[in-house]
Amino acid sequence: LEDLVNNYFEKMYAKAKEFYDEHGHLDIDYKIMQLPYLKLGLTAEEMELIIWKEKCKKARREGKLDSRTYRRLLDIGVFMNSHEANWNNMYTLSCIYYKKYGNFKKYVIE
């Protein structure tokens, strides 16, 4: 049973990391699934990620995560809210801009 749980975790972690790498966040809210009258266009994979993410958060609250697993989940933004994700994205873009231009001046094209 433990192998099954570990295999499922690794499978879902890989999907979550792929989503995070593509979108820069895992800000998919579980509660939106509870509003069936909204046609949100979520895929089955996105819904599975939402549920997995919420289970990870619950395991954290209950103290069931070892430090290695917690660190891995933290690295892909499982415990990050949308405000933190937006801040991190803007910070990353600012660093890229600064590295390219050497300043934070706003360029205007006339």
Summarize the structure.
The chain has helices at 2-23, 44-61, 67-75, 82-101. It is an all-alpha fold and 110 residues long.
Can you walk me through this structure?
By secondary structure, the chain is mainly α. It has 4 helices and no strands. Helix 1 packs across helix 2 (44-61). The mean pLDDT is 78.
What's the helical proportion of residues?
55-70%
Query: For the report, how would you describe the main beta sheet?
Result: none
How would you state the average pLDDT, rounded? 78
Q: Provide the structure class.
A: mainly alpha
Residue ranges: pLDDT <50 for 5 or more in a row? none
- The end-to-end span amounts to 65 Å
The number of helical runs is 4
Query: Taking Cα atoms only, what radius of gyration do you get, to the nearest Å?
Result: 18 Å
Determine the strand fraction and express it as a percent band. under 5%
The shape is elongated
Would you count the extended β strands for me?
0
Order of helix and strand elements from N to C terminus = HHHH
What is the multimeric organization of the chains shown? single chain
